[in-house]
Known about the structure:
The chain is elongated and about 80 Å long. α1 runs antiparallel to α2. The protein is built from 14 helices and 3 strands. The longest helix is centred in the N-terminal third of the chain and has 20 residues, at 20-39. The chain is mostly helical. Strands 1-2-3 form a 3-stranded antiparallel β-sheet.
Amino acid sequence: MNELIDAYLDYLVIEKGLAANSIDAYSADLAEFSSFMEKKEIRNVAMVDSTVVLAWLIHLTRKGLSPKSRARHLITARGFYRYLSGEKQIKSNPFKDVDLPKTGQSLPKIISVPEVEALINAGNPEQPKSLRNIAMIEIMYGAGLRVSELIQLKIQDINLDAGLVRVTGKGSKERIVPFGSKAQKILRQWMDTIRPQLLKHVRSDYLFVARAGNPMTRQAFWKIIKKYAALAGLSRQVTPHTLRHSFATHLLEGGADLRSVQTMLGHSDISTTQIYTHISKEYLIRMHQAFHPRN
């Protein structure tokens, strides 16, 4: 790797005509990168994949580097690997789908799996409206829905037997997201028994209905989450979006890959999904240690 770095620096001097101070900065950044790879016993540039890259970015974060500094390191390494690709030293560029850290980007607020369970258990399934609320929380967390997507769900969007929900997201883009057995069970009870009781003789296409068969409002559902969080004794603030963030983080921590989570969340750009890797850094490191051939 060090020989290739030296060749790249020569290329920057001879072909690109970079000044000495720029070369010094590139050299320092690549030395940091090479040192990290050596500690991980990765001495072949072709062994670096996107998981290794993300683990390296986590390493830079733990060192206390600012988003601006991490972005500079990433630009340097990205240029190096672009050079290696042009020189046919690698078959694919692991930096291709890794976006720059955003300055001032805040981390999503999440709750733990036990806290999600406490939130759901705060409702009383013996009460019709409470069962509806539990079903809404289950499917929102189970499929990572936005609150606007949740309240607009129609009966025909749910396939209970397959455990799938069709979601219409931003820009009217549709996606199919699976949900688990617990959500299936509570949804079946809601759709087969409780929903018809609440509707009586009113017709409605909406899955979750309020008065007169109308869909629930965002504000009403936010109040439900706030009430259930208080009943569950959760000290931190919980919003509907907290459940979506928690869904993504728990998937990554459980072993899901970034592309799958991107698809389920309906993100058009994987860089939007990558914010969750900052929360799941322990998972990424564990995954690298467990699955990389050099560990």
